[in-house]
Design brief:
The chain is an all-alpha fold and about 90 residues long. About 65% of the residues lie in helices and about 0% in strands. The longest helix has 18 residues, at about 30-45.
């Protein structure tokens, strides 16, 4: 039982070190949300059919939609919240 728990824990640590978006125990809600939004925006940009669909819906060119999505990736959820000082 303990060996299984250690194995699962080590696999989770490996995934978290390999992929930034998987998060870890210290990931804040803001960081997780930013990762989620950036992953979604990257998927929209990377899949040509999704990009075409968005461009038709917004009545914009695909290049303009791609540019706008890239701009949203800078701060997809607004500026980060103030960090609290815990002493």
């Amino acid at each position: 039982m303990a060996a299984e728990r250690y194995n699962i824990h080590s696999q989770l640590e490996h995934l978290q070190s390999k992929y930034v978006g998987t998060g870890h125990s210290d990931t804040t809600r803001y960081e997780w949300t930013v990762n989620h939004h950036r992953d979604s925006l990257a998927s929209y940009i990377g899949h040509d059919n999704l990009l075409s669909h968005i461009s038709v819906a917004e009545n914009e060119s695909k290049a303009r939609v791609r540019f706008n999505l890239l701009q949203k990736m800078l701060q997809p959820c607004g500026p980060p919240p103030e960090k609290r000082e815990d002493y």
